[in-house]
Fold this sequence. Notes:
Layout lengths: L1 E4 L5 H15 L21 H4 L3 E8 L2 E10 L8 E8 L8 H12 L2 E8 L3 H13 L4 E8 L2 E10 L1
Parallel strand pairs: 4-5
Antiparallel strand pairs: 1-2, 2-3, 3-4, 5-7, 6-7
Amino acid sequence: MELIKATVEDKSLLKNLYSFYLHDLSAYNHTLVSNEEGVFEFDSFHLIWEKDGITPYLMKEGTALLGFFLLLEKPLMTKVDYCVNDFFLYQRYRGKGYAEQIVQMLFNEKKGHYYIAQLVKNKRAVAFWKKIYQQFNIEFEENFEVEDGEEVVFQTFEVK
């Protein structure tokens, strides 16, 4: 398995992955709807390539594309070092340990303070991150907030 920093050449691929990710999230957020062509679009997608501190990663095993995630860091992040944002794995790879391996690879490479948020309604994502914290013996602080009308739970913690 490997994490590959996506480049501007991967823009079309990442845009397609985002549509799948947003489709999955639409089950928990009523404001996410497809456009007139039936595609879910991330309205700030262009910022990925324009703002410092946003790094998209592709997750692969051999030639198989597993999914992607967005890592936010300084200078964009000011209160923590990293934010794992928009974590997506194709359904066929879920529940098989791939996501845990990917997170372990990330934590091995990027030590520091993290912020991770999930929609409260997305119980699978909430359970996944709690499992990660337990598996890696991570002590975390948890809080709730309302973001864009949706209840969000978020955790902050340090990876040493």
